[in-house]
Amino acid sequence: MSYDRTAVVFVNLGSPKESTPKAVKQFLKEFLGDPRVIEVNPILWKIILNLIILPIRSPQSAKRYETIWTPEGSPLVVETEKLVGGMGQRLGKKFPGLFCTYAMRYGDPSIANVVRNLHLEKGFQKILLVPLNPQYSATTTGSVMDALCDVLKTMRSQPEIRMVRDFHNEDAYIEALAKSISDFWKKHSPLGEKGKLVLSFHGMPQSYVNKGDPYQDQTVVESDLIANRLNLKSDQWIRTYQSRFGKDVWLQPYTEPTLVELAKKGTERIDIVCPSFITDCLETHEEIEGEARKAFLDAGGKEFNYIPCLNAQDYWLDLFSDFLGKHLNGWEEQS
Fold first, then answer.
1. Rounded to whole angstroms, what are the CA distances from 189 to 1, 193, 237, 288, 318?
2. Annotated binding site for Fe(2+)
3. Average pLDDT of the chain?
4. How many CB atoms lie within 10 A of CB 146?
5. What is the pLDDT averaged over residues 181-185?
6. Number of domain units in the chain
7. Which of 28, 58, 203, 208 could crosslink 250 through cysteines, CB 3.0-4.6 Å?
8. If you average pLDDT over residues 75-97, what whole number do you get?
């Protein structure tokens, strides 16, 4: 039995090719042009996006990307490649012949190009799609499914598809996050009476949740599981939402204003993690390590610790490969 015609495709959000205004503008145009991300009148939004948002936001975002860019390139891309390499080694041992690669929802390599290449050029008959979004949202995993369906509609021969919808409450993921946090405390120091753990999830407009998006419910479930795994009392942690865009009401409480309020009320130390992200990126490095840190310390806080994403940590990849094995079992080729 072999898996030599089976591929696993990990899908991350994507990144500009370079930290230049031109490259960032191209990326933002695709990202913010996705109707799953911005749910407004498409004709009106296209005008606003191209005439107002992109000319103003692209240079601003390029400066932000420049602060986190590495010699190897975008942190999100670098960490995604490390993750896929590590998962390929682990899954390859469990499922001989299995091939692992990645695609980006926005930018390159695109889902369309990767799926077409795997099936039409390389002959893979079965594809497991793994969005690197622990929580399901129409804005993320739903959009990945849209992109997949768009390319499948153009293919006369189509591969067999399986897809991981979410893993926000999977024991492997909760265990890995809890270990990441507890390992930090063992190495650094315990949280202490005047410290608080902040679980900062990516935000979204409240209206999306009101229409039925399950994202917020999944963040509540996940954060409770993490707190329980760490044996935290209710006053030792808080769940917040970051990355607000525009003037609409988004999920609350907002991360940065909450940090400022905590500092003013006497919280001296913040340890913060971002459970919406598997790999570190602009939102974790620049928004949390940079802007949120400054806001907390300027408001009177004394210590701010960002705990990195799981990225390609060995213990996480071991647990993740066991979890994905459940989706691959029984999919082998009969010899």
1. 49, 12, 16, 21, 26
2. 202, 283
3. 97
4. 15
5. 98
6. 2
7. 203
8. 97
For residue 49, tell me if it sits in a domain. yes
β-bridge pairing 99-104 and 6-12: parallel
Burial class (CB in 10 A: 0-12, 13-18, 19+), 210: exposed
Does residue 77 register a pLDDT over 80? yes
Rounded Cα distance, 6 and 324, in Å: 13
Binding residue positions: 202, 283
CA–CA separation, 41 and 71 (whole Å): 40
Q: How confident is the model at residue 332 (pLDDT cuts 50, 70, 90)?
A: confident
Q: Which residue has the tokens 């590495």?
A: 70
Mean pLDDT of 74-90: 98
158 lies in which domain range?
6-167+315-328
Chain centre to alpha carbon of residue 214:
16
Using DSSP, how many helices (H) and how many strands (E) does the chain show?
Answer: 13, 8
| 266, 192 contact by CB (below 8 A) | no
Distance CA 48, CA 106 (A): 20
pLDDT digits (tens, 9 = 90+) for 202-257: 999 999 999 999 999 999 999 999 999 999 999 999 999 999 988 899 999 999 99
